[in-house]
């Protein structure tokens, strides 16, 4: 499933509309100094297992890298994702 991930910096989150009227999936974060903490990944149950969370996390990590931020994976999904995808491990704070 290829989705459009929207970055909403004013809300400190990345969002995917899963249909024209919603629902939404999101990846929330907090930035303090040069550190980005990913706090929550939320995907509605009926869309789990379809790669939605992975696309959100990829977008978030790519943004953090572009901003030269270190990453703290407070969210268990983000933590597991980084452990499984070594190309992102250099971002860990």
TrEMBL record:
Report the PROSITE patterns cross-referenced here: GNAT_YJDJ (PS51729)
Record key words, sorted: Acyltransferase, Transferase
Q: Name one GO molecular function term.
A: acyltransferase activity
Enzyme Commission number(s) from the entry: 2.3.1.-
This protein's species is Roseateles paludis
Q: Does the keyword Acetylation apply?
A: no
Q: What's the protein name?
A: GNAT family N-acetyltransferase
The reply on keyword Transferase is yes
Domain named N-acetyltransferase: which ranges? Answer: 6-93
């Amino acid at each position: 499933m290829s989705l459009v991930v929207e970055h909403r910096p004013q809300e400190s989150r990345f969002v995917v509309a899963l249909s024209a009227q919603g629902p939404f999936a999101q990846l929330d974060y907090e930035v303090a100094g040069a550190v980005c903490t990913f706090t929550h990944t939320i995907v509605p149950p009926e869309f789990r297992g379809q790669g939605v969370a992975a696309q959100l996390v990829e977008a978030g990590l790519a943004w953090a890298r572009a901003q030269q931020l270190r990453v703290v994976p407070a969210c268990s999904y983000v933590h597991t994702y980084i452990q499984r995808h070594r190309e992102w491990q250099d971002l860990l704070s």
